[in-house]
Amino acid sequence: MVVEAGDEEAGLLAFELGADGSAAEILCVPNSGTEGEPSAGRRSRVVMDGPAVFRRAVEAMGDASTRVLQRAGLAPGDVDLLIPIRPTCASSRLPPGAWASTPPGYS
């Protein structure tokens, strides 16, 4: 989402919302839904390859940011602050200020 202060009533300049199920095996709940044989005693749990999920999320966010800026008619240098949503507790292990900074490749 790109927002900008102004004197006019406007709205969002651009946004992107998406999902990618192409790597479902890195974040899934096996034996859930209609997958597998039904069983009264079946217990499901989330299975996640955390580093792989994080890498894909970071890459997807960079790509989405580029598309949103293009739709808004802006360049990376026009961005004063980037505040991504913290999707996991893994982001709490990043250095302070890492989330409120310009991403790599953006100056």
Q: How would you characterize this protein structure?
A:
The chain is mostly helical. Helices cover 21% and strands 4% of the residues. It has a domain at 25-32 and 42-93. The chain is built from one helix and two strands; from the N terminus they run ββα. The longest helix has 23 residues, at 50-72. It is elongated and about 60 Å long. The protein starts with 26 loop residues before the first strand and ends in a 35-residue tail after the last helix.
Uncertain stretches of 5 or more adjacent residues: none
Helix content: 10-25%
The largest β sheet comes out as: 2 strands, antiparallel
Describe the strand arrangement of the main beta sheet, using strand numbers: 1-2
State the main characteristics.
mainly alpha, two-stranded antiparallel sheet, 21% helix
Summed up, what is this model?
This protein is mainly alpha-helical and 107 residues long.
Write the layout of secondary structure elements.
Elements: E1 27-28, E2 47-48, H1 50-72
